[in-house]
Amino acid sequence: MKNVQNFLVRFFPYLIAIAFSIKATREPDIWWQIRTGEWIVENGQVPKTDMFSNSVAGAEWINIKWGFEVIAAWLSKLCGPECVFLLQVLASIGIVFFLKKICKLFDLTNLVTNTITLFISLALIEYRIIGRPEMTTHFLFVVYLYILFHHFKNPSSKLIWALIPLQVLWTNMHEAYGLGIVLIGIFFFAAWVDSFKNNVNKPKIISLVLSLSIVGVLVNPRGVVMLLRPLNIFSQVNQNKFTTELANFFPYFL
């Protein structure tokens, strides 16, 4: 009986993640994302001007989600548009998996405590688990945390170098890719402070990984334009009144 209870507690967060991922398979943006992915595959290039909008047709379009759109188009062709939401299921399972690995890194192995913590974490982001390309950011954010914590726990590990290709992937999947550079930058800064404060070896590896990850941002259809593109997100705050994704939280504290 105890083994059954441990099994249920161990896998309960995964079941919650799956339930949250398939609670609402009606994301309206999926249709233009699939069509854009189909256009990219058909034409072998990423569009640079808007071809679908009625009001701003022909306007410049910096398509940051093109990688996700190609995957969405492929899945839609393979087994129908509803299968695109399987990506959300996989992303949510991956988030739980790497959160568990982070807990293990810090010896937080109590099953009940872990389960409660993971449930709270999923509940906090549940309203954004809706099958959008931002699932890439949610997943990679947790992966980055695990890799960076793992590096400082195990400095000899080569896993830290995985951040470079992951940054290239993130840059071509969702506009919040700048968070990857920010995360590495935070650990980079902390490592250098520790180096000067405790007179330990200079953090050359994290410094090189940060530099190469920034270079990795250039590996995209728009090249150098993407280096400063994340800053554009701040100019979009409060412009879109139909989503909480770009809501300004400051008024709630004033």
Give a verbal description of the structure.
This protein has 254 residues and is mainly α. The chain folds into 2 domains: 1-131, no CATH class; 134-254, no CATH class. Helix content is 59%, strand content 0%. The chain has 10 helices and no strands. α8 runs antiparallel to α9 (204-216). It is flat and about 60 Å long. It starts with a helix and ends in a 19-residue tail after the last helix. The model has no long low-confidence stretch (mean pLDDT 86).
Percent strand equals under 5%
**What is the total domain count?**
2
> Which residue ranges are poorly predicted, with pLDDT under 50 across at least 5 consecutive positions?
none
Helix-and-strand structural type: mainly alpha
Question: What gap, in angstroms, lies between the N and C termini?
Answer: 53 Å
Overall mean pLDDT stands at: 86
Number of helices: 10
Please describe the biggest sheet, giving its number of strands, its sense, and whether it closes into a barrel: none
Radius of gyration: 20 Å
- Strand tally is 0
The proportion of residues forming helix, as a percent range, comes to 55-70%
Shape: flat
Order of helices and strands: HHHHHHHHHH
